[in-house]
Amino acid sequence: MDWWLEQMGDQDNWDNGFDLDPLDLPCGHSAASLNALKYDFDQGFSRFILDAMNPNIGTLSADQIAQFEEILGCPIRIIYQHI
Q: Who is most buried in 18, 51, 52, 73, counting CB within 10 A?
């Protein structure tokens, strides 16, 4: 956790928006971007969000996700929020 907080507070990572280049991980075995790490709950870094409050549709199907990706022209990460 200390390493992660250090990366989040490092001004060099914020100079041109948040830098998501791979970093050497403290375990010493690999490198990964902060966005690629496995967190205890779904989260991610983004340039924008699409938000739908109370759509009453449950989780998106693989086909629906593929349709969003086709429209946006890039892969997406779904993060569900319960308020």
A: 18
CA distances from 6 to 2, 3, 41, 79 (A): 6, 5, 20, 25
Look at residue 77 and tell me if it is in a domain. Answer: no
Per-residue confidence of the chain (83 residues) as pLDDT tens digits? 788 888 887 777 677 667 678 888 888 778 888 877 777 777 777 777 788 877 888 889 999 999 999 999 988 888 887 77
Bridge partners of 24?
A: 31
The number of domains in the chain is: 1
Answer whether residue 28 is part of any domain. yes
